[in-house]
Amino acid sequence: MEAIVLAGGLGSRLRPIVSDVPKPMAPINGCPFLEHLFDYWMDQGVGRFVLSVGYKHEVIEKHFGNRYQSAEIDYAVEANPCGTAGGLLLSLPHLRGPGTFVVMNGDTFFEVKLDAMRRLHRDRQADLTIALREVESNNRYGGVGVDDQGRITTFDNRARTSGRALINGGVYLAEKTAFVGMASEPVGPVSLEEQLYPRMLVVGRRLYGLLSSGRFIDIGIPEDYHRAASILQGLQGD
C-alpha cells in the first residue's frame, strides 16, 4: 500500500526549540520523527511513501534519499506553500497505483489499526475514511460531526470547547476518485478541514469516521514535542 505524508508545514510554533530542521525531522529518541511514522506504518503494510514537502525539504531529501529500509520514498515539492489540501492534491500524481491509499500528517502520530480502517472503508463504500479521536476538552482542534452510522456531516474549525468532542486525528484512507474535480485554489494555501473536506461533503462524497482510542501526539507545539519521547518510546516497547 502507498501513503502520502503531509510534511510541508513551516512549523513556526516549534521553531524556538527546533530551528535547524523542518518539523517532521525534529529529533525524538535519537532519530527524526518521520522515522517513527515510517516504522509504524511499514509494520502495517505500507511499502511506499510520497512525501509532500516544502519548507527545508532539502533536509528531508538528503536524510532519506529514495528509500527508508524496505520502503520506497518519492517527493512532491511545493514551489510555494499550498497548505495541507494543496500538498495532498500535488502528491496524487506521484501515486503509482489506482487503488486505496493512506494519508497522514507528518507532524502527528496516531496509533490507528489500518485493518480496522480498511474494513470500515470497504463496508461503507467510503470515498474517504478519517481516523477520529475523542478528547475531553477541545481547545486546539476543529470539531468533526458524525451521524449514528459514522458518516461525517460537518467540519467546524470554530468548534473549540471545554467539553468532550471528536477531532480529526490526521490519518486518512482515501480513494483517488474522491478528489476528481477537487482542484486546488489557484492562489494561496488550501486547508483540508476548512476548505477541501467541506467541499467534498457538498458535492456528495462519502466521508466516514473511525473512532480510535490509540496513542496520539501532535508535535506542533513545544509542550507536546517534549511529551513525544515517552509516548513513542512506549510504542517501541510493545
Question: What is the secondary structure topology, with strand pairs?
Answer:
Blueprint: E1 2-7, E2 27-28, E3 31-32, H1 33-43, E4 48-53, H2 57-64, E5 67-68, E6 71-77, H3 83-91, E7 101-105, E8 108-110, H4 114-123, E9 128-135, E10 143-146, E11 152-156, E12 165-174, H5 192-202, E13 207-211, E14 216-218, H6 222-236
Parallel strand pairs: 1-4, 1-7, 4-6, 9-13
Antiparallel strand pairs: 2-3, 5-6, 7-12, 8-14, 9-12, 10-11
Helix pairs in contact: 3-5
- Write down the Rg: 17 Å
Give the low-pLDDT segments: none
Indicate the mean pLDDT.
Answer: 88
Number of helix segments?
6
- Find the count of extended strands (DSSP E, 2+ residues): 14
Per CATH, the architecture of the largest domain is Alpha-Beta Complex
Structure explained in plain terms:
This protein is an alpha/beta fold. It folds into 2 domains: 1-106, Alpha-Beta Complex (Spore Coat Polysaccharide Biosynthesis Protein SpsA, Chain A), CATH 3.90.550.10; 112-178 and 188-214, Alpha-Beta Complex (Spore Coat Polysaccharide Biosynthesis Protein SpsA, Chain A), CATH 3.90.550. It is 27% helix and 29% strand. It has helices at 33-43, 57-64, 83-91, 114-123, 192-202, 222-236, and strands at 2-7, 27-28, 31-32, 48-53, 67-68, 71-77, 101-105, 108-110, 128-135, 143-146, 152-156, 165-174, 207-211, 216-218. It has an 8-stranded mixed beta sheet. The chain has a two-stranded antiparallel ribbon with strand order 2-3. The radius of gyration is 17 Å and the shape is globular. The protein starts with a strand and ends with a helix.
